[in-house]
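Escalated from tier 1: zinc ion holo job.
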Amino acid sequence: MKTFIKNKNTISEKDNLIILVENSNNLSNLDLEKKEINYINDRLKKNDEIITINQYNREIIILRPKKNDDTNLYLEETRCLGFKVHEQIKKNSSVVVQNLSEGVINTFAFLEGLALSNYNFEEYKTKKDESKLHTVFVNDSLKEDKLNEIEKIVEAVKITRDLVNTPFSHLKAIDLANKAKKAGDESGFKTTIFTKKKIESLKMGGLLAVNQGSIDEPTFSILEWKPANATNKKPIILVGKGVVYDTGGLSLKPTANSMDIMKVDMAGAGTVIGAMHAIANNNIQKYVIGLIPATDNRPSGNAYAPGDVVTMYDGTTVEVLNTDAEGRMILADALSYAHKYDPELVIDLATLTGSAANTIGHFGIVSMQENARKEHDLLEKSGHNTHERLAEMPFWKDYDELIKSDIADIKNLGGPFGGAITAGKFLAHFIKYPWIHLDIAGPAWVSSKYQYRSKGATGMGVRLLYNFIKNR
Ligand code: BES
Ligand code: ZN
Ligand code: ZN
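Tier 2 regenerated the structure:
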């Protein structure tokens, strides 16, 4: 279900209200009784963030986010307040948001937090949850185009979450490719889908090796957004890991807390599709390409096996020592393929390693870069703006040693430590352009709600990429 965010100039006495205030001075503008104003003042003095007035025909909720000298953290506090208040008002079908803080509180961030909270994955529920907001009316100086922008960002995050929450049996590689196409048709980017024959003729050895044990064919999708007035000649390329299900292959995963959530393993691809949707739908004048290699990773009589040597798309030979390190195999081919576009910058997103998730949890994104110091700094800034933060790993030369193979050019397994970094080093072997690697294994999925990000798929990364590309 879509939440409609709309402007509203007049407020009636039946409208449920959310009022953003900075201090009690602003309250005089409201049509409240003296007793009510006294009560609110009292609560504000006690530093309450949420103050509720229940009138007989409506609810009025006064909100004041906790002060923070750090602008970005204040924005995040405001989004989180959107989440907290959503729990309280979701039973009402509509609400009017009014900002009386004279610009101190950011309405955009508040609406983002509120609308991002208005999500449940209900595709497979026979009885749908009725307690959701249908319309958010906004009584604020925020222009119509800004409201549309928020709505489109939230919609894109929903696309990503829906894709990641969809179980494997409903989302094979070909389904993922078709979903990308559908997102493109809706928002304006063009999608080209390579199926197995084409992938074979291109000799994408990494993607084909991972797919070898599967009964379903792989796909390789190219998403292209090339607006007429793009400010960049060379494209920015987003590459997303599209492992629609990761059993580990012959290096089989255990089930509990491991294989059972592995439908998440196409979250990189889902994030690229969501970000492309947000960019195209908001008509951002930047030339952007998405590349999505997709397959499941399943064992069978024909599956690739530990000890195999695989020749990749660029000719590199790889000794496979663990078939569960499959993400790097399919990404490597996509990263090699990206050279043909002579890109300005390539960013890949992948649920690549348990090591990344263990290192920082779900609070942010593990990052690495090569030839892209400045770009990474800018992306980091977007990370703080959107609270989809980066934690950059060391990427010292010393780690290169750990992926050297005795019998091939490199191996797909690192040493006993730094698993996220050696995975990154494996990918770095295939790039010559400015490149940023984002390992989203931690934040792509949460087992309990992390504020407005929803339980299960979070969609983290979509707002980051949108903000970064828009502001370049
Ligand atoms: N898809 C997993 C990584 C993952 C772990 C994603 C947890 C989401 C949550 C990846 O393909 C994998 O299995 N990586 C292995 C690599 C190892 C065999 C070198 C890992 O991290 O254990
Ligand atoms: Zn794996
Ligand atoms: Zn995987």
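The pocket of zinc ion (ligand 2) is lined by residues 246, 248, 324, 326 (CB under 6 Å).
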